[in-house]
Amino acid sequence: KVEVGDAITVFFLHGASFSSQNWVDIKTLDHVANWGYRSVAIDLPGFGKTKDRLDPSHNADFMAAFVKAMEMKKVVIVSPSMSGGFALPYLFKEPKLSTEKAVGYVPVAPVGTSVFRAQYPDSQLPTLIVYGTEDKMAESVRADLSLLPKHQMAPIDGAGHACYLNNPEAFHKLLFQFLKSLSS
Question: Which ranges carry the AB hydrolase-1 domain (predicted)?
């Protein structure tokens, strides 16, 4: 049995029109658990089944409090679309501390990437930039996130903005390889 403190925890966020249920529906949480990692998915404040909204200026504090409350030590944050407004300030407001907050980051066309362009070069956080090749928004996001020194691009051919939902199998393969690279 893997103890909570020993394993990587994959922390799944979601886009504005979605919820944590999406990760259940496409069996991502099951896959991650079967691969030997802990998986956590939440409905962000004001979305899914969580009714109370937060002022966006508190999004990074929310992330820090949740990670602490769930006793997540080695965190990989998966952040699609709207959830970039939570993950990006948490990870890159102080970019030199990003590797203390997470061991990896998987942005999936997150919003708000341009806000932290100046900070990205100072982060050493391993990042897997996942995007659908048919997502028109992805080009500027890729340009911003490519400023992260330890990034790799992970296109999903023929997929759109919610590429993990368009092609879960391809997404799972990319995620598995990334997690494996962080574990070795």
Answer: 10-110
